[in-house]
Amino acid sequence: MNTRRTVLVSTSALAAVVAAGGGANALIEHKAEARAAEEVQCRLGSADGVEAELTDPLAGLKTLTGRVGTLHLSADKVEHEGTTFAVDAALHGVSTDGTADSGSATVTVGYDEIAKRLPKQVRGMKPGTDGEHLTLSGPVAGTGIPVTVLNTVSANPDGLTIAPDSVRVLGQQVKLSTLTSLPGMDRFADQLGPRNVGLGQLPEGVRTTGAKATDKGLALSFQFSPDLLSSSDSDTSDTSSGCENGEAESGNA
Fold first, then answer.
1. Helix (H, G, I), strand (E, B) or coil at 252
2. What is the rounded distance in angstroms from the CA atom of residue 212 to the CA atom of residue 129?
3. Whether the bond into 157 is cis, omega within 30 of 0
4. What's the maximum distance between 2 C-alpha atoms anywhere in the chain?
5. Residue 89 CB: number of other CB atoms within 10 A?
6. Residues with Cβ < 8 Å from 247, sequence gap 6 or more?
7. Which residues partner with 105 through β-bridges?
């Protein structure tokens, strides 16, 4: 998702609600959340379960001051360049002028999606988790022996580092070096890595802060720089272009 555009889309929706004026806190808050969700849905196109929530106390009344506090955004089945994922973001210190003080997001890619993009060396193994590690389960190439490889996942400036930690084989968990010392298994370590996985060119002001294997998939955490979120030199009226005409910009995800 284009982060800066997401901020502008959401806060311009809140500004529209304020302009409508009046009402109790709950009513203003509900309308603000609904408008923000509608704008984000438009920008994400075919995404499911798009929700927007103001989480600060009396957030509805705060919209009258131009400061609305924290805005939580979430969406499932967001599509970008052939990959489907879920997004969960929080923008803090949001103002109706299209800025925020800080923000972060978690992008969760399901294991079925990861399976489609495994490198050739481990293609055919099934990704998943044991609650702590990113696991790859399947037969060792050339031997037919079923194993589960337990990998650690960490973030680096260019993307992710996935490194094998240990292996479950024949009901036992052993270090990878123990398994690869057996006859015919010496090439297994080369197939598994460790390896770096690039995430492509991230928008300026967005950095990767973490990665974790969860029940729902591989969750990648991102932080937004204050400069990115405080920049308001773009015309906020642009955020409604296309959406008011019913045109969804799914390519901006």
1. helix
2. 10
3. no
4. 77
5. 23
6. 42
7. 89, 222
Q: Burial code of 139-151, b = ≥16 C-beta within 10 A, e = fewer?
A: ebeeeebebbbbb
> What residues pair up with 207 in beta bridges, in sequence order?
223
Contact yes or no for 56/62 (Cβ under 8 A): yes
Say if CB 33 and CB 52 are below 8 A apart: yes
Is the CB of residue 68 less than 8 Å from the CB of residue 59?
A: yes
pTM of the model as a whole: 0.76
Strand order in the sheet with 48-54: 48-54, 67-80, 83-95, 102-109, 217-224, 206-214
Report d(CA 90, CA 6) in Å as an integer: 11
Tens of pLDDT, residues 103-117: 898 999 999 999 988
Mean pLDDT calculated for residue range 87-93: 87
Q: If you average pLDDT over residues 124-151, what whole number do you get? A: 87
